Fold this sequence. Notes:
By secondary structure, this protein is an alpha/beta fold. It has helices at residues 16-28, 41-49, 51-59, 68-77, 87-101, 114-125, 145-158, 171-178, 194-199, 207-211, 215-222, 227-247, and strands spanning 5-6, 9-10, 34-39, 62-65, 104-109, 130-134, 162-166, 187-190. It is globular.
Amino acid sequence: MKKNNILNITINPETKKTVLEKILLYIEKPTGFLHIVSLNSENMVVATEDDLFKRVIETAQIKIVDGIGVVLAGRWLGIEVGERVTGVGLMEDLLKVASDRRLRVLMIGGKENLALQLAQCYNNRFLKAMFKGLQGIKSIQNPDTVEEEKIFSIVADYKPHLVFVAFGSPDQELWIARHKKEFSNCVVMGVGGAFDYLSGKVIRAPGIIQKVGFEWLFRLVNQPWRWKRQLRLFKFKGLILQEKWKKK
Length: 248
């Protein structure tokens, strides 16, 4: 049987519609916690270097194909990847769902109290839902016990339906997985820089640039400090070439 994976990471072909249906079904009858992971070229390279991160990705109940590089790699390798579903786009859809269904939403992370500012903004915009924002943790690589205890005390009291964590990948996914017990009965999603985009602090690439696969270049021009991270894109291309060669 043909394996539907790229770089030994299982790809579950999804559409935004099927993803939203799964999330809504879980919210109606929550069991454990639901972890959503966004796949892109950068974090898939990290998964080839970090076994723990790879296990976290593989055990996530929902994996969305966020990066255009993964979509193009799938086409080239003959792997079905489904519809491209961006993390920012899915988060926006879930915020609307929260309003329609009167859900509680918790935003953790980001910079300069961005989560708190976004929560206040959405409380004014979506009057039927409830939003709470937390700065969270100063150093996600070395989280402070007191900081974490404060977060999970709020989680236990607030009982959010949706949790968005913006610590950057892979740190946010590893942190979420470590605390799956504390996030019981929650839909939890690592959203990286989504808070920056939604707040308007960072300009998102125009749709046409995203479609042709040059969003990475747009980001690099606007955020030149990302150049080291962008090197992973070249490694991703090399790994995909190796995988293609093995298939011959």
